[in-house]
Amino acid sequence: MPKDMTETADIFTRRESAARSYCRGMPAMFAKGRGSELIDADGKAWIDFLAGCSSLNYGHNDPDMKAALVEHITGDGIAHGLDLHTSTKAAFIEAFERHILAPRDMDHRIMFTGPTGANAVEAAMKIARKVTGHSNIIAFTNGFHGVTMGALAATGNGYHRGGAAMDLAGVTRMPFDGYFGEGVDTAAQLEQMLSDASGGVDAPAAIILETVQGEGGLNAASPEWVRHIAAIARKHGALLIIDDIQAGCGRTGTFFSFEEMGVTPDIVTMAKSLSGFGLPFAALLVRPEHDVFGPAEHNGTFRGNTHAFVTARVAIEKFWADEAFEQELAEKQRLILDRLAELAVLVPGATLKGRGLMQGVDVGSGELASAICARAYELGLVIETSGNEDQVVKVLAPLTTPVETFNEGFDILLTAARGVLDSAAKIAAE
Amino acid sequence: MPKDMTETADIFTRRESAARSYCRGMPAMFAKGRGSELIDADGKAWIDFLAGCSSLNYGHNDPDMKAALVEHITGDGIAHGLDLHTSTKAAFIEAFERHILAPRDMDHRIMFTGPTGANAVEAAMKIARKVTGHSNIIAFTNGFHGVTMGALAATGNGYHRGGAAMDLAGVTRMPFDGYFGEGVDTAAQLEQMLSDASGGVDAPAAIILETVQGEGGLNAASPEWVRHIAAIARKHGALLIIDDIQAGCGRTGTFFSFEEMGVTPDIVTMAKSLSGFGLPFAALLVRPEHDVFGPAEHNGTFRGNTHAFVTARVAIEKFWADEAFEQELAEKQRLILDRLAELAVLVPGATLKGRGLMQGVDVGSGELASAICARAYELGLVIETSGNEDQVVKVLAPLTTPVETFNEGFDILLTAARGVLDSAAKIAAE
Amino acid sequence: MPKDMTETADIFTRRESAARSYCRGMPAMFAKGRGSELIDADGKAWIDFLAGCSSLNYGHNDPDMKAALVEHITGDGIAHGLDLHTSTKAAFIEAFERHILAPRDMDHRIMFTGPTGANAVEAAMKIARKVTGHSNIIAFTNGFHGVTMGALAATGNGYHRGGAAMDLAGVTRMPFDGYFGEGVDTAAQLEQMLSDASGGVDAPAAIILETVQGEGGLNAASPEWVRHIAAIARKHGALLIIDDIQAGCGRTGTFFSFEEMGVTPDIVTMAKSLSGFGLPFAALLVRPEHDVFGPAEHNGTFRGNTHAFVTARVAIEKFWADEAFEQELAEKQRLILDRLAELAVLVPGATLKGRGLMQGVDVGSGELASAICARAYELGLVIETSGNEDQVVKVLAPLTTPVETFNEGFDILLTAARGVLDSAAKIAAE
Amino acid sequence: MPKDMTETADIFTRRESAARSYCRGMPAMFAKGRGSELIDADGKAWIDFLAGCSSLNYGHNDPDMKAALVEHITGDGIAHGLDLHTSTKAAFIEAFERHILAPRDMDHRIMFTGPTGANAVEAAMKIARKVTGHSNIIAFTNGFHGVTMGALAATGNGYHRGGAAMDLAGVTRMPFDGYFGEGVDTAAQLEQMLSDASGGVDAPAAIILETVQGEGGLNAASPEWVRHIAAIARKHGALLIIDDIQAGCGRTGTFFSFEEMGVTPDIVTMAKSLSGFGLPFAALLVRPEHDVFGPAEHNGTFRGNTHAFVTARVAIEKFWADEAFEQELAEKQRLILDRLAELAVLVPGATLKGRGLMQGVDVGSGELASAICARAYELGLVIETSGNEDQVVKVLAPLTTPVETFNEGFDILLTAARGVLDSAAKIAAE
């Protein structure tokens, strides 16, 4: 590492909080991003199979979004507009209505919350409680919904929950689809407990779920299970909240992750790739009859990031105005599946996880998965683990990644895996 | 309003959540911002005495920040980098250390939380609880710290609290400085209750306060009171959290609002004008011994907005590298005081509120204050109310507002006030 | 009803709270109790298959306890002694140690809580939290532990929970043994969720259970399940609390309900029949290493009811000094089973529930069970329902009930059931 | 101590929980009680100025109550009757209506809760929340309402609160009358915070208070303050709960402690001396329009202690059927005041505390007060301290204590105080 690098790295040690994380395993000083590549200050490039944890579904610095954003800024377009009307916001909403909501027969309204997924989740939970007068929200094992106190209550991860250092209220945990193995219908279990006058689960305000648990290990719910959950919510007067923060914006192959499941969520939370460009931006979609907040009742300085309105509009118009992109995604998910299958056969007992373009391989231990990812990083691939024990190697590449780059990335991943497994075998043999 | 405007406005009614607020009283379709001016789609301009609720302390589209940001984007600089090391982040931290922390003898570390003030407050409260093992946090009447469940517990406003639709835990409310009038030392009251073995106030993890309550009516705490609170926190093993989200970044005349008070907060929360450009960005400053989060224990997709690192660095270097800006602010706050005094004399019983460049006039009723602001909007000035009854006309102009523009804005404000008062007098006379 | 009776009944309507309950279905004015009989003011007698909800396991006014109590009172024995040492208390503890604890190898200490079962449960939950530093307590579907705020959180019944009119904190609900039918091992499910780092169930302070759920429908846990739960508690650092308030004091055929299960609970809560005479009295048994309350840390005016010490000592010495009583119980539980089987065959789909001398028949609907009990009352038998839908006809006769009286009671019950079923059949036929 | 005594004491060490408290400072083995005397197993007698913490307002073993109770038991009167109608209960309610409620124009209904004060408080808080739909209850510094989780939230004492080992929800603490000294109107402070839209104190379900804080140091609220609080409760839609558990049943010179204050509480909680004989018994009085519990919604096995109905009826008829007893109390409270004044002059800075027959002297330190009480015990007087630092020597003698016995007791107390002060002076002089 050149001297100035060392010094610059020092600044992080000296002045950045110990809460920093990704930089620990991937200590390069990154400087640029282009498409599916991350480039460090020395010009070294990595293929990016992390994509800002699915915040860069259209890759780094998409040229059309870039051009529009530069034009906006150059022309003194509003950078920060509170929740005032702006022509930029109007254009985004119109594009979102035309290309996303209307074709899917969704009458939802858009609420621009603070620009973090957690803020959208907090708003969703508050709305559900205000609508129903109940406080209990059903959330699932391995669900991840953010780490602010309201959202954190719905998050299953014990490490994050511990960060609260106090009790988290208002959420009942239930087993996700498949949690107890194949024969057990966890939706039926939930229904039994809710319907039992002495089941001890209070009447719910909402049921919140991810259709694919991105942080929780790429557990994919079946359409049947999601429909059953939706029916349970309706029966018990609860709202159905689908947290599409990681799985939305095309990640599963369709714009929303639930499109082909036959359910209409009362609330959808969105963030990550919603801006298209990686800018902080979040929103929730809410059925008009549940749009119950008064003016600014849930507020925040940065609700509605105007720069993000610019890029998000371009993203919608570029990728979702016709079916071409979705068709492309259908092909890529087959590619991913095939290449991940190659990885899975290397590891005894490994299983494929996930759906669409958020797939991975459960290699059975967090140690192994982390070793593979660390080795991949050395070889030029940025990739991360997922799951309650970090046991899943997770592919979250930009959806726009060219087939060739996908293959390059998977070649690195396979090389890394073989290298790690060989080393382990040698050590075991000694 | 031209036809297309109407149509465009319709999109908000049709598709934006009823939670939208500022646009209701100021329904123009804004398009551009330049310095202290907001300009609508038809080219009509308003002087901006709101400044994104103090998120645009350096005005709209500062040319130096703009140039740096455009250069960054054009050159494919990282837009979204999770919490990886980036040269952009390093440059920001270095500038912040050199020009802000070091000269003020602050050894704090910077934690980049999710890019909302509320997220920084949530992180601060969690840290305090983790450090102390206690959950109780003391917050004050009329304090405003955000609306996510953790922060909302610390927020006094009943309308916002009601949005939670469930109980808010972990906070004890105490009267702010001056709350019971001049003779009553509310810090001493807090101390008595905390020191009483049967006082019924549990041992605190933290005391959180704004030195000037921006949303709560521009109530300014005296240095003596803040010092007393700091001493109470220390005595009872609690952390002192100063929420400088609205009052920081020069708003009170110095970079931090507490600089001249003789206290060193354990944690400082920052957001709003921290990016310099109005971009979503938040951080907390924490003494090294309290920097207790493990890696990603408090996480979030948009922690560390790379675009904001660019503009925030320029803002620091441009305005805070020497004392020129602070001197300018000292002059402007006198101007503001003088001109607000003119307003105050118009309204019987009106009082001046606030400190530095966050001052206002308590005109005694929310109805009157709102009428004045509404009339000012019609005359070309964007300005808002504050306070538990919206009774304070609050000036939050960009700190960079030229004296001439300041005077223009105040002229409009005075004209508006006179108009409203005359109308009221006429109605009363009839 | 004679005139003075009417007037007297009026006093209840006029001045007793609407919270009164048993008197609604059994409106007689009771005056005396003798053995297994309740006698009203006119001398009419009922066989008592309710026994004060298992508070009168030795029947009404046992002559030996009565004599001892009268002697105590006549001799100016202490009636109320706070938690001072009294010779009466010493004698009780000695008898309890000699005849109950020592023979069962239990090293537990006795804490005299406020004289209600709920108070003992509250104390138990507080101890578990103090010992472990965790707040989460695992409780089960259909569990009943009392209606004060701490205990109510552990109670499953939704009607009682609703009485709190606010959120109940600190408890996670899990399915009881057999809740999801025969094939499903609910202990294994609990273990999986607790062991999962993202299972979202916080580390428990305790697991609390009844081995037979008296209010919840006479659901009897298997010894295997209880042992598995005990192992889970130990593994996760949680205390095992067995709530033996209704099932203890011989009700299941042994003094404690868990005696033959191969577990040693960390805490046992006792009340109901502990005094032997129906007097308010509760206690908890706690292993010495968990006896962590400081002096009066959990206090209460009536902790240690001195009159109850007198009768409780007699009860212990009379019934538990040798094995005769237990042998008698073994015979009686066979009798009960046989006679209940007669009832079960009358109702299609009816099932036998419970264990020992707390058995009943699930007749499939609360309406039917209530009708049977109401008819039995008219015919001279006091008996009640149980279960989440009141669908279980529950026999809780005094353990001392002579075989002949048992049979008399069952004869009435069968007559009542046949009558109700015949009427229903006639109505159905019309 | 004779050998058998030692052995008997061993049983407590060996088998009684460390939570036991009074017996630590007063280790005698008590056996009998007669009037105002406690007698140990060896026949040694103490004058009782503690009276079971005001549970024995009519002394030990009042002959009339004793006779009635023995007659009841001998005649096989019901010992335990759940909440069935009994002639015994009817007779009690009738007496209570005739002699207590009717003459005071109180239309309240009586709810027999579990037989502890805490249970009555829990029921009161639940009712208030159910009536109003709010969860927040205002309680005061130094208030004591019990240690079960709901009541404990309202209790100020930090030692007891800590016993919960988790957060206590649903209560806002406010300063009691006089808490900040003479000039400060704490009711006005409460009113200001409640009326402030951003005061951060949620709309209350109830305000709960003791007119004289028995455990909190005999702080006596002024009638003006209580009236102001009652008005605030009414204005804000909250119920007024007066916890008369310690101060009621004649302790302040009238049956209820609030009788001469010009307020009608919505709910009154009663326990301690309600049975007259020291038996476990509690009740709450609730205005009919707030009697909202459904049948058994708040239940408990021992609600309505039948033995206590017997003695409580005799107590009401014997002491409250005419004004003789109240006149006697008026004289005795003057005696107490005079004799305590003698004590107060001995200690520099000492102040008289309390009202009626619950008076004491604040001697400035818990150490001194405890030393005086310990010395008094040695000299034959049972007396205890009170207050947040145990700094108050508190007289809670039976109300029936003859003047001569009162004087004897006070003579002992003064001797003890002089002895302790002399010793301290000697030590200081050395």
CATH class of the largest domain in chain A equals Alpha Beta
Question: Using CB atoms under 8 Å apart, which protein chain pair has the greatest interface?
Answer: C-D, 119 and 118 residues
- By CATH, the superfamily of the largest domain in chain A comes out as Type I PLP-dependent aspartate aminotransferase-like (Major domain)
Fraction of residues in H or I helices of chain A: 40-55%
Which residue ranges of chain A are poorly predicted, with pLDDT under 50 across at least 5 consecutive positions?
A: 1-6
Which geometry of chain A do the CA atoms define?
globular
Rg estimate of chain A, integer Å: 22 Å
Largest beta-sheet characterization of chain A: 7 strands, mixed
* Number of beta strands of chain A: 17
Q: What is the subunit arrangement here? A: homotetramer
Q: What is the percentage of strand-forming residues of chain A?
A: 15-25%
GO biological process, one term (chains A, B, C, D): ectoine biosynthetic process
GO molecular function, one term (chains A, B, C, D): diaminobutyrate-pyruvate transaminase activity
Cofactor (chains A, B, C, D): pyridoxal 5'-phosphate
Enzyme class (chains A, B, C, D): transferase
